[in-house]
Design goal:
13 helices, binds flavin-adenine dinucleotide, 459 residues, FAD/NAD(P)-binding domain, eight-stranded mixed sheet, globular, alpha+beta
Length: 459
C-alpha cells in the first residue's frame, strides 16, 4: 500500500487537511487511518442506559470520524484568541483569516448561519465593566453553535464528501507506529502491516496524546512538555446565567486570584446544557459538558480551569493530572464526584440527599455526591474558590451555596511538538496537527491547522 499522504486520526484537524487538499484540486492519493467508527455508527449507549457503559475498545464520544468533535457541543470559536496557541506559530493575522475561510466551509456543509455574542454591544460593555471591577478580563469571542446533534449531521456530510471524492478511510484501525529511516518518515505500521506514505500527518487528538508521547521518545521527535489544566465543571440554574447566556452565549473570563495569582479561566460554557462523562482508554473518567441545539436542560455548565506547568526535577504534567483524576475517581468509586459550593466552604462533603434540597439538579445523574476537595490540590482548590467569588460579582448567584462543582475536570494538552510555521517536524515528511500537536485546544483551531496543512500538502 502506497499513498502520497497518510493522515492518522479523523478528527477536525485530519479531515480538514483532506477537505482543503480536495478544494485545491489536489490529485494526491490520501489515506485517513481512524481507530474508531464512521460517524453514522457512533452511538453513545448512555442515552438508553442512563449511565456510562465504558465502551471497548474505544469510547464513542472521543473516537471515530470527526473525533472529539462529533459529540462535542459544536461551539466554533471565531476568535484566534481562543482555542490554543497556534497563532504564536503562524501569526495572528493568518490565524484570523483562516478562521474566516474555515467558517465558510462549515457553512457550506450546513452550519447554522447565526453567530452568538455580537448582537448586543451595549450589554457586552456593561458585563465588561463588572468584570473589570472584579479584576477579571472578558475575552470577546463570537461563537457559531452547531449543537451536538447538528454537529454529527454536518460531519456526516463531510465524511460522505471525502469518500465520494476518493479519499480512503480505514476505520477501526489504530496506527501503532511510524516508519522512520535516516531521519525521514516513510509511512506507518498498523497491526504489524507497513503502509508507505510520502507525507505522514499525525492528528490523533487528546485521545492519542499518550501514544504520541511514546512515538516522540522512540523516534526523537522534537517536543517539550505541555500544560495541563486541572479544575472543576460548575453547574448552576439557567436563571443565574441568563444575562451572559443571552448576550455572549459563552462568557470567557480570565482572572489571577489571590493569593497565588495563577491564571484561572472559564471554558466551554453550555447554556441549557448537560454535564457529561468522558472515559479514557486507561479507565480514567473525567467530566465535560455539552449542549444540544434543540434539547435544553434547566442548567448552564462551564469549566473553571487552572493551568499547571512543571520543569525540574519533574516534568510530566499529564501524569500529574492523571493522579489527581484517579484520586477523584477512587473517591467516587469510579464515578464523577459532585459537591455543593457551600459544603466546600463549610469543609464538609455533600450527601446524596442534600442534592435534592437545591434549585439546581445535577444534569449528570450518575455523578455521586462526595468531597472533591479530598482530591484537588490545595493551591488549585484555593484558586477555584477565589475565582468563583470574583465571577459572582459579574454573575450574581454564581457563588451560591447550591452551585454544583464536578470533578475531575482535566484538560490534557499533549506535549508541544516543535515545528516550523509549515508544520514540519525534525523528521522529514512528518507533521503533527490539532490537539495532539499541543498547539490547539478546540474545534475551530484544530480545523484551521488542518486547512493550512492541506494547503502545504496540495502543492
Ligand atoms: C465532550 C466534548 C465537548 C467539546 N466541546 C467543544 C466545543 O464545543 N468547542 C470546541 O471548540 N471544542 C470542543 N471540544 C474539543 C474539541 O472536540 C477538540 O479540540 C477537537 O476535536 C480536536 O480536534 P483534533 O482533530 O485535533 O482531535 P480529535 O477530535 O480528538 O480527533 C482525533 C482522532 O484521532 C483518532 N486516533 C487517536 N489515536 C489514533 C491512532 N493511534 N490511530 C488511529 N486513530 C487515532 C481518534 O479516534 C480521534 O477520532 C470538546 C471535546 C469534548 C470531548
Amino acid at each position: 500500500m502506497n499513498y502520497d499522504v497518510i493522515i492518522i486520526g479523523a478528527g477536525p484537524a485530519g479531515i480538514f487537511t483532506a477537505v482543503e487538499m480536495l478544494r485545491r484540486g489536489s490529485k494526491k492519493k490520501i489515506l485517513i487511518i481512524e481507530k474508531g467508527q464512521p460517524v453514522e455508527k457512533r452511538h453513545c449507549p448512555k442515552s438508553q442506559t442512563g449511565k456510562c457503559m465504558n465502551c471497548k475498545p474505544d469510547c464513542h464520544i472521543t473516537t471515530g470520524f470527526s473525533g472529539a468533535g462529533a459529540f462535542s457541543d459544536g461551539k466554533l470559536s471565531l476568535s484566534c484568541e481562543v482555542g490554543g496557541t497556534l497563532p504564536e506559530l503562524i501569526g495572528e493575522q493568518t490565524a484570523q483569516e483562516t478562521i474566516a475561510y474555515t467558517d465558510n466551509i462549515y457553512l457550506e456543509f450546513g452550519a447554522d448561519e447565526h453567530v452568538e455574542g455580537i448582537s448586543n454591544p451595549d450589554k457586552i460593555r456593561e458585563i465588561r465593566k463588572k468584570a473589570i471591577n472584579a479584576s477579571l478580563k472578558l475575552v470577546d469571542c463570537p461563537i457559531r453553535h452547531l449543537g451536538t446533534e447538528m454537529a454529527q449531521q454536518l460531519y456526516a456530510r463531510i465524511e460522505k464528501h471525502l469518500l465520494d471524492s476518493g479519499v480512503e478511510i480505514m476505520f477501526n484501525t489504530a496506527c501503532d507506529d511510524i516508519i522512520v529511516e535516516d531521519g525521514v518518515c516513510k509511512g506507518v505500521f498498523c497491526s504489524g502491516n507497513a503502509i508507505s506514505g510520502n507525507e505522514t500527518v499525525i492528528a490523533a487528538g487528546r485521545k492519542g496524546a499518550d501514544w504520541l508521547e511514546k512515538i516522540c521518545v522512540a523516534h526523537g521527535i522534537g517536543h517539550r512538555p505541555g500544560t495541563v489544566d486541572i479544575g472543576v465543571r460548575v453547574e448552576v440554574r439557567n436563571e443565574v446565567m441568563e444575562e451572559v447566556n443571552e448576550v455572549l452565549y459563552e462568557s470567557k473570563l480570565i482572572g489571577y486570584p489571590a493569593p497565588f495569582r495563577n491564571k484561572v479561566r472559564t471554558f466551554c460554557q453550555n447554556p441549557g446544557g448537560f454535564v457529561a462523562q468522558e472515559n479514557y482508554d486507561d479507565g480514567l473518567a473525567v467530566v465535560n459538558g455539552h449542549s444540544y441545539k434543540n434539547i435544553k436542560s434547566d442548567n448552564t455548565n462551564l469549566a473553571i480551569l487552572c493551568s499547571h506547568n512543571f520543569s525540574v526535577p519533574f516534568n510530566q504534567p499529564i501524569e500529574y493530572a492523571k493522579k489527581v483524576g484517579e484520586l477523584a475517581n477512587m473517591l467516587g468509586n469510579g464515578h464523577i464526584l459532585v459537591q455543593r459550593y457551600g459544603d466546600i466552604l463549610d469543609g464538609k462533603r455533600t450527601w446524596e440527599k442534600e442534592l435534592s434540597f437545591s434549585n439546581v439538579k445535577p444534569s449528570l445523574p450518575d455523578a455521586v455526591a462526595g468531597d472533591i476537595t479530598a482530591a484537588i490540590p490545595y493551591r488549585t482548590m484555593t484558586n477555584i474558590i477565589n475565582f468563583i467569588k470574583a465571577v459572582d460579582d459579574v454573575v450574581p448567584g454564581f457563588a451560591s451555596r447550591e452551585t454544583l462543582l464536578y470533578s475531575p475536570e482535566l484538560k490534557f494538552y499533549s506535549n508541544r511538538i516543535k515545528m516550523d510555521e509549515h508544520f514540519n517536524t525534525n523528521i522529514k515528511g512528518l507533521h503533527c496537527l490539532g490537539d495532539s500537536s499541543g498547539w490547539t485546544r478546540g474545534l475551530m483551531m484544530a480545523s484551521i491547522m488542518g486547512v493550512l496543512m492541506g494547503r502545504e500538502l496540495s502543492e
